[in-house]
Design brief:
The structure is a single chain. The chain is mainly α. It has two domains: 85 residues, Tetratricopeptide repeat domain (Serine Threonine Protein Phosphatase 5, Tetratricopeptide repeat, Alpha Horseshoe); 67 residues, Tetratricopeptide repeat domain (Serine Threonine Protein Phosphatase 5, Tetratricopeptide repeat, Alpha Horseshoe). The chain contains nine helices and no strands.
Length: 176
């Protein structure tokens, strides 16, 4: 779960800018895939200011990338607690909850994200995958088709088209 290319401060107020400035170096470490160093730096930021949403968000990314899904979930939850409008953290939370098997939680968080940003491609993708994991192919298809209408990147669109095609095919008989 790499930092999004459009990760940027949520607002232009001085406190938000200070929060962003505090994690700037850590974000660079993430882009360089230096996850352990980023985690140390981000924890230092959080010791100095436990209300920095960017520190929680980027910590969630570092934890996810190192396979620490429960801790990543907790970091994303902390981010949306201090900054409920942080869409990137909420979408990441949907993916982590799905990966952990909490499909109800993933769909609930996805619904909150969709209310925040109707038509957002990342939200639609996350919700589609959560519904697919839950076995609700009709809902998955709705969200994934809407995701494709949002003109996603080629690679992700190709993956989603393959998922949709696989949903069309009848299940194969199990060998006896």
């Amino acid at each position: 779960m790499r930092p999004l290319s459009d990760d940027k401060p949520l607002s232009t107020d001085a406190r938000d800018n200070a929060h962003w400035d505090a994690v700037d170096e850590s974000a660079e470490l993430l882009h360089e895939e230096r996850f352990q160093e980023a985690m140390v730096a981000l924890r230092d930021v959080l010791r100095a200011d436990a209300h920095n949403p960017y520190a929680y968000y980027f910590l969630g990314i570092a934890l996810y990338e190192t396979g620490q899904l429960e801790a990543a979930r907790d970091a994303y939850r902390a981010c949306v607690k201090v900054a409920p409008a942080h869409l990137g953290a909420r979408v990441a939370l949907v993916h982590v909850l799905r990966a952990l098997g909490d499909l109800r939680g993933a769909i609930q968080e996805g619904s909150v994200a969709l209310a925040q940003a109707p038509g957002d491609g990342d939200v639609l993708h996350a919700l589609g995958l959560a519904h697919l994991a839950r076995g609700d192919n009709a809902a998955a298809r709705r969200y994934l088709e809407a995701f494709l209408e949002a003109r996603p990147e080629f690679e992700t669109a190709t993956d989603v088209k393959a998922l949709l095609d696989a949903m069309e095919r009848p299940p194969r008989d199990e060998p006896s």
